[in-house]
Specification:
This protein is an alpha+beta fold. Among the domains are: about 90 residues, RNA polymerase II/Efflux pump adaptor protein, barrel-sandwich hybrid domain (OB fold (Dihydrolipoamide Acetyltransferase, E2P), Beta Barrel); about 90 residues, Beta Barrel (OB fold (Dihydrolipoamide Acetyltransferase, E2P)); about 200 residues, Chloramphenicol Acetyltransferase (2-Layer Sandwich), CATH 3.30.559.10. It is about 30% helix and about 25% strand. The protein has 14 helices and 28 strands. The chain is globular and about 90 Å long. The relative contact order is 0.09. Its cofactor is (R)-lipoate. InterPro entries: 2-oxoA_DH_lipoyl-BS (IPR003016), 2-oxoacid_DH_actylTfrase (IPR001078), Biotin_lipoyl (IPR000089), CAT-like_dom_sf (IPR023213), E2/Pdx1 (IPR045257), E3-bd_dom_sf (IPR036625), PSBD (IPR004167), Single_hybrid_motif (IPR011053). Pfam families: 2-oxoacid_dh (PF00198), Biotin_lipoyl (PF00364), E3_binding (PF02817).
Length: about 550
């Protein structure tokens, strides 16, 4: 059965996308995981992979063209399959005349298909089906962590509908439509695939009988895509003015403050002066988390009080189950979306990429002296991990084959260096990325890593901040681990594992003295990196770390 592929939402702020390049053409065979196209968003140009198999039957948006999120991008199905009805349903248009005389013309055939499917696909006026968004380029399923609106609530453009847990973070999902929340398709804690029915928004009292059921049976968001585009075009001017009014507050001194409707509501309930709140959103926009984490300058019992729900949750989390002595006792913990994706990606990496590991011991005495001198400068804080990141970036520039990706018909050499840094979080592991790491100095690397790691642990990272790595570093030295091997973070070809600095007897100039050493382990994909290539990279890395002054050359 043919499947409509819609323009994905590749970032939380994306409303439309531009097809930069098609990597498949009509008639090509498509396998799950194939890269269909490169799509330019509001933040970056990203590869968009297929989650379906079949033949590419139709391209709806050509190279260089832009289109709103959820509009028809392509159709994949069986070779020779008739997709005429889907071509109509993927376009916003009004319902045609009841009948059309049959003729050999293609236009008339399309009109016949329209008449046959219009009663099923049409939605009541003003009703919009909201689908599960794709909030990252690797997201295939999403879990609704919390609904911030309930059925019957009024919704305006810009309101936060729900918090959705992706494979990388938990993010707020805001509405691009106005009306009343008429139906919730995915309950809190439930998981659903991208593009499945999430909610229905429309005028109060609208009869939506059969819409959800038909949508689930059909399994594709074709009707909703056309309806959403049509609605957005019809209400652009009104929606734009109302959104600006809703997201901007003017205080007594005339200063304009950008704030989301939900954040404004919470601030009013808590009695918080929004002029004192620093926004973390786009253009300094104040969002829900800014209000929740706000601590006033002059603290009062009201502003810092813990809500009953929060205190109850903390008490529940702290209670440990009673385990009777001598009895078998097990506890089942539901896998989060992040944990599922970690399991899937690492299993794919381990069983598809032939791993091998190279280990080298590095003397850290000079690095320790250099770090002490650097940190003596006021307002400067550099860690050993920052030094390893900088040294790795410089070594990658000298050994670009390590900075590569495997493809079935070629090896892609990256001449830019984007190092991903593995960060442990409550639910698993995330890898924020330092773009163009080789151009950053130690202070910039240290500041960026602390910022990204802090926001990662608070689930505030954007998907775009975890994309595009060309090499990964994982450090367990702070836990006292002296040596370990990591699984490659594909599509990278290598990952560096960093152990703890150990004080031990070493031989220098024929004498046994006390020295400080650190073990480095490089896991390589043998498809792209030969053993000698990996060894040469580690030698260069060792030279940089053992003589930090050479990184200034």
């Amino acid at each position: 059965m043919a499947k409509i592929i819609t323009m994905p939402r590749l970032s939380d702020t994306m409303t439309e996308g531009v097809v930069a390049k098609w990597l498949k053409k009509v008639g090509d065979k498509i396998s799950e995981g194939d890269i269909l196209a490169e799509i330019e968003t509001d933040k970056a140009t990203m590869e968009f992979e297929s989650f379906n198999e079949g033949t590419l039957l139709h391209i709806g948006i050509h190279e260089g063209e832009s289109a709103p999120v959820d509009s028809l991008l392509a159709i994949i199905g069986n070779e020779g399959e008739d997709i005429t009805p889907l071509l109509y349903l993927g376009k916003p248009s009004s319902v045609p005349a009841p009948e059309a005389p049959p003729t050999p013309k293609v236009e008339d055939k399309k009109e016949e298909a329209i008449n046959a499917t219009a009663p099923i696909a049409s939605l009541p006026k003003g009703v919009v089906v909201v689908t599960m968004p794709r909030l990252s380029d690797t997201m295939t399923d999403g879990t609704v962590a919390t609904w911030l609106k309930k059925v019957g609530d009024a919704v305006v453009e810009g309101d936060i509908l729900a918090e959705i847990e992706t494979d990388k973070a938990t993010m707020e999902f805001e509405s691009f439509n106005e009306g009343t929340l008429l139906f919730v398709g995915v309950q809190e804690g439930q998981t659903a695939p991208v593009d499945s029915l999430l909610a229905i928004i429309g005028p109060t009292g609208t009869d939506i009988t059969g819409i959800a059921e038909n949508y689930k049976k059909d399994g594709s968001p074709v009707a909703t895509a056309s309806e959403k585009v049509e609605t957005s075009k019809a209400e652009t001017a009104v929606a734009a003015s109302e959104k600006s009014e809703e997201s901007v507050q003017v205080i007594s001194d005339g200063k304009r403050i950008f704030i989301s409707p939900l954040a404004k509501k919470i601030a009013e309930e808590k009695g918080i002066n929004i002029a004192q709140v620093k926004g973390s959103g786009e253009n300094g926009r104040i969002v829900k988390s800014d209000i929740e984490n706000f601590v006033p300058i002059a603290s009062t019992p009201k502003s810092v009080s813990i809500s009953p729900a929060t205190s109850q949750k903390a008490e529940t989390a702290s209670v440990k189950p009673f385990v009777p002595s001598g009895e078998v006792f097990t506890e089942e913990i539901k896998n989060s979306q992040m944990r599922k994706i970690i399991a899937k990606r690492l299993a794919e990496s381990l069983f598809t990429a032939p791993h091998y590991n190279l280990v080298i011991e590095v003397t850290m005495d000079e690095a320790m002296k250099s770090r002490a001198i650097i940190n003596s400068v006021p307002d400067t804080k550099v860690s050993f991990n920052d030094m390893v990141i900088k040294a790795s970036a410089m070594a990658l520039k000298k050994h670009p084959k390590i900075n590569s990706q495997w493809r079935e018909d070629s090896i892609l050499i990256n001449h830019h260096v984007n190092i991903g840094v593995a960060v442990a979080v409550e639910d698993g592991l995330v890898v924020p990325v330092l773009p163009f790491t080789d151009a950053m100095n130690l202070s910039q690397i240290g500041g960026s890593v602390r910022d990204l790691a802090g926001r990662a642990k608070n689930k505030k990272l954007l998907p775009t901040e975890m994309e595009g790595s060309t090499f990964t570093i994982s450090n367990l030295g702070m836990f006292g681990i002296t040596e370990f091997n990591s699984i490659i973070n594909q599509p990278n070809s290598a990952i560096l594992s960093v152990g703890a600095i150990v004080e031990k007897p070493v031989v220098k100039n024929g004498q046994i003295v006390v020295g400080n050493t650190m073990m480095l382990s490089l896991a390589c994909d043998h498809r792209t990196i030969d053993g000698a290539t990996g060894a040469q990279f580690l030698q260069t890395l060792k030279q940089y770390i053992e003589n930090p002054v050479t990184m200034l050359a």
